[in-house]
């Protein structure tokens, strides 16, 4: 299936590794020109070179930290200069520290909300006018399955990411007639550095070995295994494609069936 992504310009946030990198690779494989971004310049250079070596869309990168207030404006200007036009924005951030919500102080909530919500809203606001004028655009926001079924010991993530749901749905209602769609992609347990970090912490807290914790986690997923960044990236590529033009305002789960609600 031709997804109609050739020569589209895509900015993928937090894409030096994990879910963001999986998305960037998938978009480039479909012929999109991609700008990766993150804090690790060496890793970004390595991953960008790897994508360019595959012969699909062209990849470039910007070193940036979403914790800095000036980052949205700088990312917008530099990515637009590199791509010529930003047709696709993938909003993605790292997760906050694990822990119970009852233990999180207001300062932790405020600082993580700035990075995980306000920076995304600001950047989207900069990208959106050109999409609407052109009559085509895709905004995909990566959140977590915790916005549907809160995840134990990830209180900050559950609370903060949930606010993106109302924002994304509201935007979807407001701009769809201009050819711009807003959707959310919700990962379950995907085999990334973040998942491995959480599994190691779970093992330490429970006194179990890491392999036992990993096997237990996989057994609780209906498909019986963790997902891969490649699988996740493939779903993202479809959602931002020409073929997905009638999917708007949705929360798409990529979780192997782990979320128990209908």
Automatic annotation (TrEMBL):
Record-linked CDD domains: BKR_like_SDR_like
InterPro entries: SDR, SDR_fam
Protein name (record): SDR family oxidoreductase
Superkingdom of this protein's organism: Bacteria
PANTHER family registered for this protein in UniProt: 3-OXOACYL-(ACYL-CARRIER-PROTEIN) REDUCTASE, NADPH-DEPENDENT REDUCTASE BACG
Similarity field: Belongs to the short-chain dehydrogenases/reductases (SDR) family.
């Amino acid at each position: 299936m031709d997804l109609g992504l050739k020569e589209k310009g895509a900015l993928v946030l937090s894409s030096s590794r994990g879910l963001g990198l999986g998305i960037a690779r998938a978009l480039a494989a479909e012929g999109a020109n991609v700008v990766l971004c993150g804090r690790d310049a060496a890793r970004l250079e390595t991953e960008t070179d790897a994508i360019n070596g595959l012969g699909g869309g062209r990849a470039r990168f910007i070193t940036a930290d979403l914790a800095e207030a000036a980052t949205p404006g700088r990312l917008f200007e530099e990515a637009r200069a590199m791509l010529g036009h930003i047709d696709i924005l993938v909003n993605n951030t790292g997760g906050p520290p694990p822990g119970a919500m009852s233990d999180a102080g207001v300062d932790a909530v405020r600082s993580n909300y700035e990075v995980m919500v306000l920076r995304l809203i600001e950047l989207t606001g900069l990208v959106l006018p050109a999409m609407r004028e052109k009559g085509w655009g895709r905004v995909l926001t990566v959140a977590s399955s915790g916005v549907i079924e809160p995840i134990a010991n990830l209180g900050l993530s559950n609370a903060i990411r949930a606010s993106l749901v109302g924002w994304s749905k509201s935007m979807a209602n407001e701009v769809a007639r201009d050819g711009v769609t807003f959707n959310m992609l919700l990962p379950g347990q995907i085999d990334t550095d973040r998942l491995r970090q959480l599994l190691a912490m779970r093992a330490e807290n429970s006194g179990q070995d890491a392999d036992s914790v990993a096997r237990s986690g996989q057994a609780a997923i209906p498909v019986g295994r963790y997902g891969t960044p490649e699988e996740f990236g493939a779903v993202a590529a479809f959602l931002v494609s020409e073929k997905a033009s009638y999917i708007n305002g949705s929360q798409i789960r990529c979780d192997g069936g782990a979320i128990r609600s209908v």
